[in-house]
Amino acid sequence: MTRELPGTEIPTAAILLPTDEMCAAVDGFLAASPAARAWDVETAFDWDRAAADRLTEGQRSAVQFVTYIEDHLPGYFDVYQRYFPVDGRVDQDTFVHNRELYHFTVRWALEEDTHARALARYQQAAGMAERSTLRDELAVEGRKPFDLPYRHPVQFFAYALVQEKATQLYYQSLREVSGDPVLAAVLSRLARDEARHFSFMADVVGRYLRTQGDAVVEPIREVVAGFRMPLADTMRGYWRWALRIADVADYDHTAAYAHLVRIIDRAVDTRTEPLDELVRFLDRCRALT
Ligand SMILES: [Fe+2]
Ligand SMILES: [Fe+2]
């Protein structure tokens, strides 16, 4: 999907993070993700021991739900291609920035694709789903569009920061209650990856705060104010399902806001008035839940 969406523009170097800053963030992510610590679906787990009858019905439902979310990777990956293109649609400076970011994006996409495969494999191995039925079900949601129609580049990273942290915390709490050790092992791997993805997003948002200061405050506030988990607007029965999975294990995306406050405080020596206002807003969002 490469359509241009109304009201959205490709960010240019004028508002992007300086390329050296993006480069440092990407290098940091890749240094924290050495090949020796990588894992694969084929060998990392004892699939023969997977048994869905050890899970409650709610836990099985949670596994199905997060499989849908992870399986939508082509849609998420496409957002980066549309807003940070690596082709002739952008000028030289923008290209150079986007090319550096691409080193992150492809690695991240490989990891997320592995999450989708691991969860689907679990469903088959544990006796929850037939492979062909599952792939047809996933395709129904997978074909639906995904977009983040943001106006400032920091917003894509602020959105992903909240989403990655929320997902990490959910996997950790689902792992705690999981009756099947094989599922627990899968969730441990996933949570560790999400934690690294979050760290990259946190690093990038911190760098935007340091280099652009108050100019990124309102864009970040907009992301928090309008936050929806991926697929919330398109997936059949999303809200009913989301409430149900929150019953099974703690799920609360506002838990990520405390981390955002910490990133703000690490990025600046003293909070400006707009930053103070943003932190008060984040605290109010947390208090509401
Ligand atoms: Fe993931
Ligand atoms: Fe992730």
Task: Give the structure's gist in a few sentences.
With 289 residues, the chain is an all-alpha fold. The chain is built from 11 helices and no strands. InterPro entries: Fatty_acid_desaturase-2, Ferritin-like_SF, RNR-like.
Describe the structure.
With 289 residues, this protein is mainly alpha-helical. It has a single domain, classed as Orthogonal Bundle (Ribonucleotide Reductase, subunit A), CATH 1.10.620.20. The protein is built from eleven helices and no strands. It has helices at 19-31, 57-71, 73-83, 92-125, 131-142, 153-177, 181-212, 217-225, 238-248, 255-267, 273-287. It binds fe (ii) ion (2 copies). One fe (ii) ion is lined by residues 70, 112, 115, 190, 194. The site of one fe (ii) ion (FE2) has 5 residues, from helix 4 and helix 7.
Small-molecule binders here are:
fe (ii) ion
Mean pLDDT over the full residue set: 93
- CATH superfamily, by name, is Ribonucleotide Reductase, subunit A
Poorly predicted spans: 1-7
Number of domains: 1
Number of helices: 11
In terms of structural class, how would the helical and strand content be classed?
mainly alpha
**What's the N-to-C terminus distance?**
36 Å
Approximate helicity band:
55-70%
**What form results from the Cα inertia axes?**
globular
Kindly report the oligomeric state of this protein.
Answer: single chain
CATH topology label:
Ribonucleotide Reductase, subunit A
- Beta-strand share of residues: under 5%
Gross CATH architecture: Orthogonal Bundle
- E-strand count: 0
Q: SSE order in H/E notation?
A: HHHHHHHHHHH
Largest sheet: none
Rg, nearest Å: 19 Å
Q: State the name of the first-level CATH class.
A: Mainly Alpha
